[in-house]
């Protein structure tokens, strides 16, 4: 098509110059269809000026026509089952990375001052104070439980040091009707009036919803007041009355569950959304990709909140993926995305609040990548100084601590004082130490609880296992904890 257009354009030019009739088509330059010898014969008597003029006109019209031909190609559309696709004559590959990295939304700078161009709806004093005190409570709870594990009083613990803003601010932005999922491998259970929530590295959400320090301690020590009856490892919290379902550890399996829950909310036409939390390491799992595609295709109200803290245990993000973090992946699946400063409490609060509104009102998924830093070790089984510089850890812990940054902001508002700070920290520490003392002294669940709460009637194989366990304990009592009732 383009060759025919160009041939017509060249003959039009020659016609204007009075020489078209003496030219004939040949194989010279398929793009113009004019014989070189004929052209030279006809133009020889007209001098170099004519040749120069003609050459310039051909080049100019060639460029114009090439653009026109490409435009005509682009106007053609492939009516593909997946959507209409425009054609182009330009052979151009999509680059492996965008020219510019996704920007990071923030409100407060590292000094707790609003950045000059920021515009946001003011947070009420009551909400701000509640967020700050819960961040302090989470920070102190983590510190004391970590020390308790190091003293051999509990078997395992995992902190959220450096990630308090994501925990508390996102919880404050959600509704109690929203279904929350974190690092779990649990099937979704939902009734007419009850929703179950799933937490792993987000204990701050439990704090926000009313889970007490004593309940945290009971679970970590696995005593008879533990709602899981001592059958779970520490930090696998749960409480039916607060609609929090007991969790377990496998990575990213909760993400498709959240999408399924969101689908049910959509079908029931409820004004709520599902929310799932995961780390940057979770985005390397297949469940992450399957869930995003599922959510986009079904157009369900779900928030994907990724805590990108730079490290999946000892694997840095630069060794996990080459893409521009996690936010850039949303567009590939047709999902609205946002990157937010995960250490900026106000930014996280407003980002999650806006995303929730969008997800519910437009029935669509939203992906939020919260950039933060795991200022503590991955868990009590990890020593992060073996794979990352100590000065890097200290920089983030001291210079970019989300709790200190938010404290500076509420200080500037006149909502907080040093006296209030000392009082709340002293009070929380006393309550935390007391909770541990009570939990530690409390009796353990009986051996029989290991076999209950799965079947209505215990099957014969489990009855046999329980019998053998009791016989073994009676023969070798020195090998079993003496504080566990037989």
Key features?
486 residues, alpha/beta, 9 strands, five-stranded parallel sheet
Helix-strand blueprint:
Blueprint: H1 2-16, H2 36-43, H3 47-75, E1 77-80, E2 83-86, H4 125-150, H5 164-173, E3 179-181, H6 203-209, H7 213-221, H8 254-267, E4 274-279, H9 286-298, E5 302-308, E6 311-312, E7 315-316, H10 327-332, E8 336-341, H11 345-362, E9 366-371, H12 390-399, H13 402-412, H14 418-441, H15 460-475
Parallel strand pairs: 3-4, 4-5, 5-9, 8-9
Antiparallel strand pairs: 1-2, 6-7
Describe this entry's structure for a reader:
The chain is α/β, with parallel strands linked by helices and 486 residues long. The protein has 15 helices and 9 strands. The strands form 3 sheets. Strands 3-4-5-9-8 form a 5-stranded parallel β-sheet, with helices on both faces. Strands 1-2 form a two-stranded antiparallel sheet. A hairpin with a 2-residue loop joins strand 1 and strand 2. Helix 7 packs parallel to helix 14. It is globular. 36% of the residues are buried.
Distance between the termini: 89 Å
Instruction: State the helix count.
Output: 15
Poorly predicted ranges (pLDDT <50, ≥5 residues)?
A: 19-47, 184-199
**What is the CA-based Rg, rounded?**
33 Å
Short description:
With 486 residues, the chain is an alpha/beta fold.
